[in-house]
């Protein structure tokens, strides 16, 4: 069994330790003897939408986001839409999340067009939403056992994201701001496309979510796979420590 | 003299005395109070100083300013320097008040001020420096600074407005810092490294300025010295690294103990045998040397004074405790940590390691950055590992995913207990390499002091 991962813009869009998500996907597959292949897809590169089971798209700075938005429109958008239609799994964080939506509207200047595979829009605001973030996962997207029910991380964004009808929230905020600091929602999910503001990075401290992504991504080619249980004591300790820290700060 | 200024100085001196009696460090509070009473206090305190130097950058500010003030003091120049590590304006005010009389004048000839990256605009407008040194710019404490780009923008706004009698000393190897020299009237001097052997094979993941700041095209690096520092050029618009006239070359690492190198300057060449290790410290040395030369110090006197230099607290400092050695290396952001790893694990020998990660405001409350550090390089190079601090769980998780197993009994949030445990496990003559974040370093200093272990720096 093998998993093909496309890492979108690793140079431009990976400022907050987002690489940890890739490391986690790789390790958790290899510990189960699942081969992993990762292709780094940069500015100017074309995407073979047939090739990948899972796409990862991290967060970046405003300057990078402008270039990436242009590149998406020019070169990659069609293939990414096709991949999403064919049920490939997407995990997008922060800037990547915003750009999988319809658009990002900065406070000055033109809209940055997104890929539109998440029914969300994002507008710049004057509040920087920074801090530990704890959410209770939305049960609708959980297909198997999912324990604990919380997802933890750290958010750092000033864009406010609002969900349209086709997207459901990834979860409800227990501590922190989430999508916009107003409606208590955090993240979005639409078919197999996931987006959220959870850095931390997200997957190391939320191994149950990492496994959900791996299982879903494999199921397209290999059917309903059963993932071997891993001993996740360090992961869950870090998960709990993040919840603790969110209460004390 | 304003009555307000005298009141501010008196109040600050009183607070300082009070804090010292009760065992506090008194590096920031007196300055904070003085600034509240007289917002112009920093300008008033620095107005009569004959020369003023500001040093900033993500990494190496403390070490560079300490080296510079060591060189100046060795040459008989009276310096005033915020050496205790508080690098916001309040910290500088505290230092100045401590060394000044009630009329805001001191006997110093030169002020050497280490300044926080985000504080540079305010510090420059109030201090009106003769020399500004900028070391580098890396991702650091993004929860506090927002983006590295924001710091870059603030810096360029400051430098554009400088008069032509200011000297700015810039790192030629950092594309973001070197670029600052292109739009200023100030006199610009570039320092850097010219040593192909030191080049890394590829850009580390935690490299920030890898695109041309002028046209946005991806930069080509012929040599990569650390993070995005190196010999670069833009194949699209032709921008390239300015040639440094002050540079280190023929570098040889001596592990944690130091390194040797040759230094070239327009005023002459000399060899150094640095007691502070790592390529990052050679950048600090050459930056300080450039500043010293620009202040009129003779090359041969610089060479002599460098022989004397000892590490700042926690920056590669070696201490002895009950027949065991400890080496402390502050590690507070991805590039800093990567370079410390490269330096300490230069040789093949396996080492005992103690990592202490806190997430308080001064550390950055977001510990995501641990995943931008290349801990994978430590695999097969560590012997025993202990992990501590408020985010011990995050650190041990990071190591697990770098294939470095940490015994769960070696993970303990309590720093003192963890240190005791590690030292007990160590055999006589063995060394423990400690990597703390900033507030963890302060905790460690306190613990060591209670054990009557003190370094050279602590007395001053």
From TrEMBL, chain A:
Alphabetical keyword list? Cell shape, Cell wall biogenesis/degradation, Glutamine amidotransferase, Hydrolase, Ligase, Peptidoglycan synthesis, Transferase
Q: Which residues bind substrate?
A: 128
What InterPro entries does the record tag this protein with? Class_I_gatase-like, CobQ_GATase1, GATase_3, Lipid_II_synth_GatD
Its EC number is: 6.3.5.13, 3.5.1.2
Reaction catalysed by this enzyme: L-glutamine + H2O = L-glutamate + NH4(+); beta-D-GlcNAc-(1->4)-Mur2Ac(oyl-L-Ala-gamma-D-Glu-L-Lys-D-Ala-D-Ala)-di-trans,octa-cis-undecaprenyl diphosphate + L-glutamine + ATP + H2O = beta-D-GlcNAc-(1->4)-Mur2Ac(oyl-L-Ala-D-isoglutaminyl-L-Lys-D-Ala-D-Ala)-di-trans,octa-cis-undecaprenyl diphosphate + L-glutamate + ADP + phosphate + H(+)
Enzyme active site = 94, 199
The protein's matches in CDD domains, at most eight in alphabetical order, are given as: GATase1_CobQ
TM stretches of this protein: none
Which pathway does the record list? Cell wall biogenesis; peptidoglycan biosynthesis
As one GO molecular function, the record gives: carbon-nitrogen ligase activity on lipid II
* A Gene Ontology biological process term: cobalamin biosynthetic process
Task: Provide the family line.
Answer: Belongs to the CobB/CobQ family. GatD subfamily.
Q: Which SUPFAM superfamilies match?
A: Class I glutamine amidotransferase-like (SSF52317)
- HAMAP family named in the record: Lipid_II_synth_GatD
Assembly mode: Forms a heterodimer with MurT.
Q: What biological function has been recorded for the protein in this entry?
A: The lipid II isoglutaminyl synthase complex catalyzes the formation of alpha-D-isoglutamine in the cell wall lipid II stem peptide. The GatD subunit catalyzes the hydrolysis of glutamine to glutamate and ammonia. The resulting ammonia molecule is channeled to the active site of MurT.
Q: Which Pfam families match?
A: GATase_3
Q: Which gene encodes it?
A: gatD
Quote the protein name from its UniProt record.
Lipid II isoglutaminyl synthase (glutamine-hydrolyzing) subunit GatD
Source species of the chain: Candidatus Woykebacteria bacterium RBG_16_39_9b
Where the record annotates domain CobB/CobQ-like glutamine amidotransferase, the positions are: 4-206
UniProtKB/TrEMBL annotation, chain B:
| Keywords (A to Z) from UniProt | ATP-binding, Cell shape, Cell wall biogenesis/degradation, Ligase, Metal-binding, Nucleotide-binding, Peptidoglycan synthesis, Signal, Zinc
Can the keyword ATP-binding be found in this entry's annotation?
yes
| GO molecular function annotations of the record | acid-amino acid ligase activity; ATP binding; carbon-nitrogen ligase activity on lipid II; zinc ion binding
Q: EC class of this enzyme?
A: ligase
Q: Which residues form the active site?
A: 366
Tell me which residues make up the Mur ligase central domain: 55-203
**Its GO biological process terms?**
cell wall organization; peptidoglycan biosynthetic process; regulation of cell shape
Indicate whether Isomerase appears among the record's keywords: no
Pathway recorded for this protein: Cell wall biogenesis; peptidoglycan biosynthesis
Query: Where does the record place the Lipid II isoglutaminyl synthase (glutamine-hydrolyzing) subunit MurT C-terminal domain?
Result: 330-441
Q: Which residues form the signal peptide?
A: 1-28
**One family name in Pfam for this protein:** MurT_C
As recorded in UniProt, its EC number(s) are 6.3.5.13
Stored PANTHER family: LIPID II ISOGLUTAMINYL SYNTHASE (GLUTAMINE-HYDROLYZING) SUBUNIT MURT (PTHR23135:SF7), MUR LIGASE FAMILY MEMBER (PTHR23135)
Q: Which family does it belong to?
A: Belongs to the MurCDEF family. MurT subfamily.
Summarizing the function annotation, the protein's role is: The lipid II isoglutaminyl synthase complex catalyzes the formation of alpha-D-isoglutamine in the cell wall lipid II stem peptide. The MurT subunit catalyzes the ATP-dependent amidation of D-glutamate residue of lipid II, converting it to an isoglutamine residue.
Subunit structure comment from the entry: Forms a heterodimer with GatD.
Q: What is this protein called?
A: Lipid II isoglutaminyl synthase (glutamine-hydrolyzing) subunit MurT
Provide the gene name from the record: murT
